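Supplementary Note 3. Input sequence used for the single-chain structure prediction.
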Amino acid sequence: MGTGEEKAWENLYSLNPSDVCRKAGVTYDNDSYILKSLGMDFSVHPGKREIKNIQPEGEIILRKYSYFFNLSALCYLLNSKDIPLSGKLVKPEGLKGGEIFFRGSHVLPLDKIADKYGNDKAYFIEKGKNFNGNIMNYGDASVELLPLPRIPVTLILWLSDDEFPARAEMLLDSTCEQHLPLDIIWSIAMMSVLVML
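The predicted structure, written as discrete structure tokens, is reproduced below.
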């Protein structure tokens, strides 16, 4: 466990659970926060410093994506605010410091989404629904995932045709910056792309 994660556990342990629940849109039961991610419930236990999946399907998140999920979940519980979504969608590069999303190892693999689903809109939508995604009306197909309760991530697919190759884009609600620091927004964005691949 990195020092950032240890500090986050410490801070979370000291907070009033009812405040955290109100701000983060989560519930509290048996000394654990119940946090919904991609349609699955996870328990976050500050006393034991452990995150567990409640449904078996959630195991893949903790097994494959814990690097992105664990610290993000803690930061979200610590920092989120009780504010409504703005409904104003922004590209990641439109966030303050958002050029990080387009450099080196931080580049979001949206090209792989385009490669995988560029000729198969139905499969893209089905995969999004597997993660409790809402079908949206952007591009040729789009799905809004909820990796954290107040942090919707919209993935948009344009199918390939005679003129253009397939492409994919991501949009975030502009309020994400009020809940999370940029590196955590990046982690959540990355996890949202990876689960679709």
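The two ends are 27 Å apart (CA to CA). The chain has eight helices and nine strands.
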